[in-house]
Every structure is written in C-alpha cells, then in structure tokens.
Specification:
The protein has 2 domains: about 15-45 and about 145-285, no CATH class; about 45-145. It has a 3-stranded antiparallel β-sheet with strand order 1-2-3. About 70% of the residues lie in helices and about 5% in strands. Strand 2 and strand 3 (about 180-185) form a beta hairpin. It is mainly α.
C-alpha cells in the first residue's frame, strides 16, 4: 500500500478523474448484487439464510487467506460450517441464544485449531464472529415486523454511502481522511457519503409514510458506522499487506471489499431494533 509520504495530503479532485473500465463494471456488478440481495430478502428468512451462507462462505475464504491460511484451508471450512449452522439456528429458533452460542464456541474451535498449527489464532478466531454476526443479524431482522423494508432501508443507506463517497470524493478531492490507512478516502468523500445516505434514507422512509427527519439521522448514522467498517477492513489489509481482499467481483475487488460496511452496520442495527426497540421505519406502516 502507498503511504502518506508518497501520495501527499490532498487528493487532486476532478482534474485527475479519467475514464476506466471500472466505470462500467462497478455499477453493473453492483446492480446485479443488489438484485440478488433484494430477491433473497423477499424470499423470507430461509432464503436470506441460504444466500447469506453462500456469501459468508466466500467472505470466509477471503478472510482466512488474508490472515495467513492457504486457499480452502481447514479454518475456512470450519468457519463456513459454523456460519451455516448459526444461520440455520437463527431460522429455526429466532428467539434462542443458539445462534450466538454457535458463533462463540465456533470461534474458540477455529482459534484453537489456528494455535495448534501456528497460525495467528486470534485473527482466525475472529472470522466466524466478524462475518457470522452480521449475517445472523440480517436473518433475525428479516423476521422482525416489516423486516423486508427495514433491511432494504439499511442497504439503501449503505449503497448511498458508497456512491456518495465515490462521486464526491473523486470530484471534490481535497484532504485525505487517513492517508496511511486508506489513501483513496478523502474528507470530502466522507462528508458526501454521510449527506447522500441521510438524503436517500429520508426519501425512502418518507415514501413509506414515516418521519423523514428521523430517517435522515439514521441514514447519517449508518453511513458513519459503515465507514468504520470500511476503515477496519482497510486496516486489516494494511496489517497483512494486501491491496484487496480478493478479486471475485469485477470493479469491487473481493466479497469482503463489497460487504465491509454491512458487516459493521447489520449487527448494530439488529441490536437497536431487536433489543432496544428502535422503529427504523419511524412510523411508516408499509
């Protein structure tokens, strides 16, 4: 990765914007993935669990490879199985602690295996928690009242965050957010991401009949949490000297590169909705 001493403190903005193939592949594959995700959400808890298990397995492959295991090593298979079991438990027993017990005990198993084989035990043990927590949260949110619209609202804010950061950051440039960690991110892109998420979430909830002002606050919060997820993955890649988590998705990099915001947002939103009683539709009754 390029350090701050090599790239300067400011991004050049629109003057440095040049056309490349990512302008085509990124939105096309982004729309395709969004369509698959929305289709899984409408299919119900079992369908979204199946989709999450496949996506979680792909993410687990990238995670364990990134933190030092060979491709398709034992830690990957263990984590994939643990996530699938937790998702199944979330579908069958949504009000039981079983999904969380499976993820917690599974993380211990993966960590012990990694310790016995001399591989970064804490990093590998983090895999089932980092990935499985978010996907389990999505399944449980789907079973909540108006769960379809809650999850779509979350994704709407996350997608607006990514789009706002990309467009405003490239056009405005300016001071970089954290050059040594993620040299492509700028303060202008970050503020543009928060504003875009707030506006889009407000419009979404207003169309459903809810309070737009409260929705804008939620959208801004989702953008901030999602940005933290993005920076966390950038930090992990920095630690292990990786540019991308993988190359499975053209224009986006790896699966983890695509879902890093969701991995932070989904558990916190599930906590707010299922435990603290937040109404993320703010009075809407779709």
């Amino acid at each position: 990765m390029t350090g701050s001493s090599d790239i300067g403190n400011n991004a050049p903005g629109y003057k440095a914007v040049k056309f490349n193939l990512d302008w085509i592949t990124r939105p096309l594959f982004g729309l395709a993935l969004a369509g698959l995700a929305i289709g899984a959400i409408y299919g119900g808890p079992a369908t979204i669990a199946a989709f999450a298990a496949l996506t979680g397995g792909a993410a687990a492959r990238e995670w364990h490879r990134m933190v030092g295991e060979r491709v398709f090593g034992p830690a990957f298979f263990l984590t994939t199985a643990i996530i699938a079991l937790a998702l199944g438990a979330a579908v069958l027993w949504p009000h039981s602690p079983a999904p969380w017990e499976i993820l917690g005990s599974g993380a211990v198993v993966v960590g012990v295996y990694a310790a016995l084989t001399g591989h970064w035990p804490l990093w590998h043990a983090a895999g089932p928690i980092y990935i499985g927590l978010a996907f389990t949260a999505l399944v449980l949110l789907r079973g909540a009242p108006h769960g379809i619209f809650v999850i779509i609202g979350m994704f709407v804010a996350i997608w607006a965050t990514d789009t706002g950061a990309l467009i405003i950051g490239n056009l405005a440039g300016g001071p970089r957010l954290w050059p040594s960690l993620s040299p492509n991110k700028t303060w202008s892109g970050t503020l543009g991401a928060v504003a875009a998420a707030a506006v889009v979430e407000a419009i979404y909830i207003k169309l459903l009949g809810g309070n737009a002002l409260l929705a804008a606050a939620l959208g801004a919060a989702i953008a901030c949490v999602g940005h933290c997820g993005d920076l966390f993955e950038s930090w992990v890649k920095r630690v292990f000297q990786r540019k991308d988590s993988g190359g499975m998705i053209p224009g986006h990099g790896g699966v983890l590169d695509r879902i890093d915001s969701t991995l932070f947002v989904a558990p916190l939103l599930a906590l707010a909705v299922l435990v603290l009683g937040l109404d993320p539709l703010f009075g809407a009754h779709p």
